[in-house]
Amino acid sequence: MIRILLSTKLGELRWTQADLARATGIRPNTINELYHELVDRVNLEHLDLICEALDCKLDELIVRVPDESPKVLHTKNGSLISSSSDR
């Protein structure tokens, strides 16, 4: 699972969502969705603007946390099988 750590980063810097929206020009609603991890897709330009505004690296904003039950299964011969129905 991909986690967005924007709430943590803003808390560390004592920035509000409104501060970030003003600094980046990104819509406050978009910042809020990122803050609460309600997005399925992320605009790369937004990530770049956020990293620039917060003076941070991308890996301080986004991390991958392995799922307890994998979505991709490996067979004995090394081929891959997707276990999710949407792929």
Automatic annotation (TrEMBL):
Q: Which CDD domains match?
A: HTH_XRE (cd00093)
List the GO molecular function terms: DNA binding
Pinpoint the HTH cro/C1-type domain residues.
12-61
Return the protein name.
Helix-turn-helix protein
The organism named in the record is Acetatifactor muris
